[in-house]
Amino acid sequence: MRLCSVVSFAIACFALDALHAADLRPGGVVKLQFPELPPTLQAMVKEGNIPATLTARLPDNYTPEGQWPLFVFLPGGGGGHGLGIDEAAQTIGPRDFIAVTMPLFKRRFLRDEPTGGLHITIDDFEKIRTCYRAMLGRLLAEVPGIVKERSTLGGFSNGAHTTATLLAGRDEFIAEHFRQFCFVDGGQDFLAAHCLHQLAARKWRLLVLKGDQPLMRDPLNDGNPTDLRPLLDATWKVSDTVARHFKLDWQLITMPGRGHAFPPEYRRLVGQWARGEDLDFLPPKATAAKDR
């Protein structure tokens, strides 16, 4: 009986190892679910019960013995459930980096708050960092070869707010595992006031992309949408002044003719920056100045 138990255990371990090896093939997609975590922001908005998921795409040249930085890109809005990897993978490209997406988290969701309750704030810091430590910690444990050099964390809109919240709260886990941070039309509430003066910021590379077209929102929920772009531009100007004062590795790029969006032609630019390549500042000219 004892021998049978040992054999059964060995067979089970072999099957698990074989499955794990299959997941870790070059170009493979790894999905890690976290049903024990609290509801994602998307689940709060839609009142669904889909568990939080981290999705990672391994590079086409992946080997367990290699060294692979992460490229984590967080979506805007409600953030989804972490199931779609296309935006992150298309931004960083098919080689050299592990592309990752995760959902967004918020401590509480109140529809009568400004911007309909979606906007990530510093109030959400503890919940965000607890969930991301669990998710990224498991990825680090299960995928060999991940390194912090050139590992990048960023996002669009609410994903950029989430990234900046983690930096503003000085989360030790994020500071340990990431060296590059990018913000696409978001994160402005936190950077100048809470992030750029930190000693740790002198070790970071920072990239901001922002639109220049009107951004119509109803921040007071009073039925009177206003253009927030002038306020955002003023905030970015302060951040730019602070970053230059402290001589940070900082680039602020305006996307002419673009609104509140992450246009596909600018994904190439972010990928070049993350890989440390010279930036191509000549994306196609916008054909319409519409705010998505």
Write the layout of secondary structure elements.
Layout: H1 2-23, E1 29-34, H2 41-46, E2 52-57, E3 68-74, H3 86-92, E4 98-101, H4 125-142, E5 146-156, H5 158-168, H6 172-177, E6 180-184, H7 191-195, E7 205-211, E8 216-217, E9 226-227, H8 229-245, E10 249-255, H9 264-275
Helix pairs in contact: 3-9
The top level CATH class name? Alpha Beta
Structural class: alpha/beta
What is the terminal-to-terminal distance?
65 Å
Strand coverage percent: 15-25%
Helices, by number, come to: 9
Query: What is the percent of helical residues?
Result: 25-40%
Shape: globular
CATH superfamily: Alpha/Beta hydrolase fold, catalytic domain
Strand tally is: 10
Strand order of the largest sheet: 1-2-4-3-5-6-7-10
Biggest sheet character: 8 strands, mixed
CATH fold-level assignment: Rossmann fold
Rg, nearest Å? 20 Å
| Low-confidence segments | 1-19
How are helices and strands ordered from N to C? HEHEEHEHEHHEHEEEHEH
